[in-house]
Design brief:
- The protein is 40% helix and 16% strand.
- It contains eleven helices and 14 strands.
- The strands form four sheets. Strands 4-13-12-11-10-7-6-5 form an eight-stranded parallel beta sheet. A two-stranded antiparallel ribbon has the order 1-14.
- The protein binds flavin mononucleotide.
- The site of flavin mononucleotide has 23 residues, from loops.
């Protein structure tokens, strides 16, 4: 199936169910429309003479991937989309040489997911009950995942339309981030960085990577798209920590722009759900592989042999 068809089929399948509203955004839904508008603001400088042979494999924080395109943190509503949904996502991402990132709730079968051989990261929310948060941190590490993520942006829980979701959360302090760092022996990522100040504090706390993200429009209304803050974050993070990005990435051209802005990896939220709903494990694999092929075409026509070579000045606003 082509990407457009996969997205259309997957979205209409999800919209026909009672989980469809989870695709929407917080309150006015400004964040969702702004994500697309900001990504579309940038065009790509073509440099096709002496075009290069592009490769998309990359290595980051001890993990080797076929592509810089990964899954963004999600658990709900995957088990309700198809039978054994989480295992199907794991299978699809493994075949694509990508990485699976679980969210809330922490899957009961996290260890079984790891045992499929797919690279796995798992997120923890800043539960008000900090003992519960640390228990979750221990549970995730015991499952043998590659990376652990902390949702620094869920301090007020999550929200879709006017409906408050996780509400048992409160903001983490720098001191607490440092305590978490001491407790985590695998690569640690702080997700939801959207300012220079939070990037600086994340680095001070010892983050191995920061995830520049507006949580796919599920936290606060009127958050910027990552591209609106990358130019203040990249100079702070360069040489100190890896940068990951997500929010509205739907095509290989979008991913190319994310890498040009300085990210090492680009995450997909809703496209993974669409792929799964449209065609199970194969659909998830197809989404990642088709976007990777699109990105590779652009790389070869812009003179970049490797994802890490893509530079900011290839974009024209
Ligand atoms: C249904 C759904 C569930 C999500 N659950 C989580 C979660 O548990 N933890 C988290 O950090 N982010 C969660 N997110 C946000 C995604 O990880 C990601 O940041 C966002 O979806 C990226 O934007 P995109 O969907 O436009 O690609 C969720 C997003 C959706 C759509």
């Amino acid at each position: 199936m082509e990407l457009t068809e996969l997205y259309q089929k997957g979205e209409s399948e999800l919209r026909s169910r009672d989980i469809g509203w989870l695709l929407d955004g917080v309150e006015t839904e400004f964040v969702l429309s702004n994500n697309r508008r900001v990504i579309d603001r940038y065009t790509i400088r073509q440099r096709c003479i002496d075009g290069v042979e592009a490769k998309t494999d990359c290595s980051i924080l001890g993990v080797k991937l076929n592509t810089p395109i990964i899954m963004s943190s999600m658990t709900m509503p995957i088990p309700g989309i198809v039978d054994n949904g989480l295992m199907a996502v794991a299978e699809g991402l493994k075949r694509a040489g990508s990485l699976m990132w679980t969210g809330t709730p922490i899957p009961q079968d996290l260890k079984a997911i790891v045992e499929t051989g797919v690279h796995v990261a798992a997120n923890v929310k800043p539960f008000k009950d900090r003992r519960m948060m640390f228990n979750a941190i221990h549970e995730i590490q015991a499952a043998g995942v590659n990376w652990l993520g902390i949702e620094i942006d869920s301090g007020q829980g999550t929200k879709v339309h006017d409906r408050q979701m996780a509400s048992d959360c409160s903001p983490l302090s720098l001191k607490e981030l440092k305590e978490i760092r001491k407790d985590v022996s695998i690569p640690l990522i702080f997700k939801g960085v959207l300012s220079r100040e939070d990037a600086e504090k994340s680095i001070e706390a010892g983050a191995d990577a920061i995830f520049v993200s507006n949580h796919g429009a599920h936290t606060l209304d009127y958050l910027p798209h990552p591209f609106q803050v990358m130019d203040e974050i990249v100079p702070v993070a360069e040489g100190e920590t890896e940068i990951l990005v997500d929010g509205g990435f739907r095509r290989g051209s979008d991913v190319f722009k994310g890498l040009a802005f300085g990210a090492s990896l680009v995450g997909l939220g809703r496209p993974i759900l669409y792929g799964l709903a449209a065609n199970g494990a194969e659909g998830v694999q197809e989404v990642v592989e088709r976007m990777t092929v699109e990105m590779k075409r652009i790389m070869s026509m812009t003179g970049f042999a490797s994802p890490s070579d893509i530079g900011r000045d290839i974009l024209i606003e």
